[in-house]
């Protein structure tokens, strides 16, 4: 596609439920990133994919968070047993994956855990 | 972990004024990026810097990659109302298994009342 797309754009869930967030990167981009942005804060790195593998998962805050990428394209971020502190905007970015490739962001998914 | 200090946190602008913001880091980066984020949108790339000392312009925006590789600044000349938004600096060390960016907390630009 022309840009990075994410779905859903907004998600309201109850504490304890699982949620899945989807990211469609720019066509042909090999690298994909997930970030979390809390209200009034900068972006917090979660996980980085190169192709279908994740060489850097260091930002995942707990084992309730997981992500996968299939076919070198779409990625899904899953949060199990959501907590209120998981409420944030989850942003996905993609890049060509080469050295010095810049990252292009999607519009984000706004997650609210009640 | 690595942290970026971005300042100022917020500022008010009057149309026509020049604006300056900067980021400093406790460790070095090989890439500095500046993004702008409008409400409800993802960050949009403004300027990318890849070489220490590099000075790059994009229209009314100018950014520099500090010679120590630990800092960067962004200047906006002759500000206009659509410059309002949140500006983020980001540092990266591409290559190998590390591809993520470290972001500053942002500088919020608002119109002076």
List its traits.
heterodimer, A: 114 residues, mainly beta, four-stranded antiparallel β-sheet, 11 strands, B: 113 residues, six-stranded mixed β-sheet, 0% helix
Description:
The complex is a heterodimer of chains A (114) and B (113). Chain A has strands at residues 5-7, 10-13, 19-24, 31-37, 43-50, 53-56, 65-69, 75-79, 88-95, 104-105, 109-113. Chain A is mainly β. In chain A, the strands form two sheets. In chain A, strands 2, 4, 5, 6, 9, 10 and 11 form a seven-stranded mixed sheet that branches. Chain A has a four-stranded antiparallel sheet with strand order 1-3-8-7, with no helix packed on it. Chain B is mainly beta and 113 residues long. Chain B has no helices and eleven strands. Chain B has strands at residues 4-7, 10-13, 19-25, 31-37, 44-49, 55-58, 61-65, 71-76, 85-92, 101-103, 107-111. In chain B, the strands form two sheets. In chain B, strands 2, 4, 5, 9, 10 and 11 form a six-stranded mixed sheet that branches. The model of chain B has no long low-confidence stretch (mean pLDDT 90). The A-B interface holds A 4, 31, 33, 35, 40-45, 48, 50, 55-56, 59, 91, 93, 95, 97, 99-108 and B 4, 6, 31, 33, 35, 40-45, 48, 50, 88, 90, 94-95, 97-106.
């Amino acid at each position: 596609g022309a840009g990075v797309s994410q779905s859903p754009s907004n998600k309201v869930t109850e504490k304890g439920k699982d949620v899945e967030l989807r990211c469609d990167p720019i066509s042909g981009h090999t690298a994909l990133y997930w970030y979390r942005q809390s209200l009034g804060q900068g972006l917090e790195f979660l996980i980085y994919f190169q192709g279908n593998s994740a060489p850097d998962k260091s930002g995942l805050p707990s084992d309730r968070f997981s992500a996968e990428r299939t076919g070198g394209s779409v990625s899904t971020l899953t949060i199990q047993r959501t907590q209120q502190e998981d409420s944030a905007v989850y942003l996905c970015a993609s890049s060509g994956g080469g050295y010095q490739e810049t990252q292009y962001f999607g519009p984000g998914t706004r997650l609210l855990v009640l | 972990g690595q942290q970026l200090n971005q300042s100022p946190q917020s500022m008010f602008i009057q149309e026509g004024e020049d604006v300056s913001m900067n980021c400093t880091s406790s460790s070095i980066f090989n890439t500095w990026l500046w993004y702008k984020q409008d409400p409800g949108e993802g960050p949009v790339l403004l300027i990318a810097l890849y070489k220490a000392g590099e000075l790059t312009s994009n229209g009314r925006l100018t950014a520099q990659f500090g010679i120590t590789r630990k800092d960067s600044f962004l200047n906006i000349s002759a500000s206009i109302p659509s410059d309002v938004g949140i500006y983020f600096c980001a540092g990266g060390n591409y290559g190998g298994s590390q591809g993520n960016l470290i972001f500053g907390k942002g500088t919020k630009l608002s119109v002076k009342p």
